[in-house]
Amino acid sequence: MFAPQGPTVRELAVQALSSVERGYDLLAPKFDHTPFRTPEAVLTPVSRVLRRLGPFGSGLDLCCGTGAGMGVLRQVCRERVTGIDLSAGMLAEGRAGEPVPAGAPRTEWVRADARALPFGPVFDLAVSFGAFGHFLPRERPGLFAQVHSVLRPGGRFVFPIGAPPRPGSRGYWTLLAFDVAMRVRNALWRPSFVMYYRTFRLADVRAELMRTGFDVRLYALPELGRRADGSPRCRLVVATRTA
Q1: % of the chain beyond a pLDDT of 90
Q2: What Pfam families has UniProt attached to this entry (predicted)?
Q3: Which of 6, 94, 97, 173 shows the greatest Cβ crowding within 10 Å of its Cβ?
Q4: DSSP 55-84
Q5: Band of the pLDDT at 199, cuts 50, 70, 90?
Q6: Could you give the 3-state DSSP secondary structure of residue 138?
Q7: 51 and 75 Cβ atoms separated by less than 8 Å
């Protein structure tokens, strides 16, 4: 699962016993050598859909980490792209990463909590990749309201969401075991480390986005495969802020 340059078991253990912010600060120098970084296999089909929907003026990468999603925004935004993350370490790695190509939109890296975004309605596009497990279900309405508040009317909030694994499958038991392990860890240890990916269900998320004031549409990402019943393994949620 990890490249040779990735974290050791001891380093992962220390990170897992830290807070979310501190854990990612510690992981940041080796984050891009772990399976936690969003792979190109996901970024490429998302870029394909966004190019069809765009172009956009300014874009926001919510919980940007070291900046995998920033490359997507640079492809479809003309003016500026902004990455926000709570981890100063992850932002530092993002700033020090690959140089921004000539002619690319202005790039900004901002340390902020996604639950209290320090912007007005200045973005035409917001994206997020793989971060929603760090928010408890009760926090999602506030999180979605924050994203809604920083989008211009007609702005879009976009993120991929995978289909849940079939009950009884290897993926199902793996996610269940991980979820149980995290809940036991948080019951016995402080500070807590929130990472519960089984709680981010499409039906719930879609209903919460609509209550927030988004019009929600789904786009299949066939490059990521299909399930036995023919349905896509991954969809792109495109939530548009209504005027």
Answers
A1: 62
A2: Methyltransf_25
A3: 94
A4: -EEEEEEET-TTTHHHHHHHHHEEEEEEEE
A5: confident
A6: helix
A7: yes
Q: Which amino acid is at 116?
A: A
- Specify the pairing of strand 77-85 against strand 151-162: unpaired
CB 119 within 8 A of CB 183: no
Closest by CA position to 161, among listed 54, 239, 82: 239
Whole-number Å distance between alpha carbons of 243 and 236: 22
Q: Find out whether 148 and 233 touch, Cβ atoms under 8 Å.
A: no
Q: Is 122 helix (H, G, I), strand (E, B) or coil?
A: coil
Count the helix, strand and coil residues of the chain and give each as a percent rounded to the nearest 5.
45, 25, 35
Confidence of residue 83 (pLDDT cuts 50, 70, 90): very high
Query: Nearest CA to 217 among 229, 227, 202, 228?
Result: 202
Q: Tell me, what's the pLDDT at 139?
A: 95
At 31, list the tokens. 């984050």
Structure tokens at 51: 């190019």
CA nearest neighbour of 73 among 37, 97, 117, 108: 108
List domains and CATH numbers for the chain.
1-36 (no CATH), 38-164+201-241 (3.40.50.150)
Q: What is the pTM of this model?
A: 0.91
**Residues 218, 237 contacting (CB under 8 angstroms):** yes
Query: In whole angstroms, what is the distance from residue 22 CA to residue 95 CA?
Result: 18
Angle CA(99)–CA(105)–CA(109) in degrees, nearest 5? 65
